[in-house]
Amino acid sequence: MPATPIRFDDGAAYELMMGRWSVLVGERFLDWLDVPDGARWLDIGCGNGAFTELLVNRCRPADVQAFDTSAEQLAYARTRLPAGAPVTWTEADAMRLPVADAASDAAVMALVLFFVPEPAVGVAEMCRAVRSGGVVAAYHWDVLGDGFPLAPIATEMLKLGVPPRMAPSSAASTLEASAALWQAAGLQQVRTCAITVQRTFDSFEDYWRSGEPSNTLRPMFEDMSAEEREMLKANVRRRLQAGDGPLTVSARANAVCGIKP
Ligand SMILES: C[S@@+](CC[C@H](N)C(=O)[O-])C[C@H]1O[C@@H](n2cnc3c(N)ncnc32)[C@H](O)[C@@H]1O
How far is Cα 111 from Cα 138, in angstroms, rounded to an integer? Predict the structure, then answer.
């Protein structure tokens, strides 16, 4: 039976679970990219706008065209920036962007490439859309190297015999695979870097609550009995050596960028 696709259908839940993590990586990613202010950006798979808002505040873009396939994520995104912000939000697929050729300075995917059914097609679309000399870039959790922020829960789930769902193109998320995709697309000056971030939660309970609405883990939680969920929770607490106070959790993303010839 084919796996149920991972759907993003609640922008507010996404904010609690992943939006804050994305911004932690996004800050470091934008410093690393170092695109000058005033650029015309494409933000592909913009989700609920967490990274888009960061982009607007940090890079003073002339224009951001933000795209996502989820109407619910876009509905949340449309509420988060003040009127007059230079952003347009459009429902569209990363593999068929409704944009002109070579009309943008930079195209990015923040935590998206591993969801795109054919990553090479998504990268080709970004290449088509940016001008010569423009930047094509992405960051994605190192899901195969336990870099996903909820990896401690996923690992303990697996030990209980419940395999967590993987994003369909997870193989594209390693540094090597990302660099190979960028090179195969004909991009030049391809660079990669691993970005490790830490997020401090008020308590273990706070971390656990942030994981419950996760698009990848929620269906597994729903299929477990109350006893199994309690056992899982105890195992995750032990794994993280969590006490009664604040809990700091690390995560790692892989970033890649290149220049269109
Ligand atoms: C993990 S979220 C990242 C959201 C945002 N970029 C961020 O950094 O918080 C992944 C997003 O990619 C979107 N997505 C998945 N497949 C897509 C596709 N083929 N084209 C466009 N967006 C897609 C999902 O709807 C979801 O909002």
Answer: 7
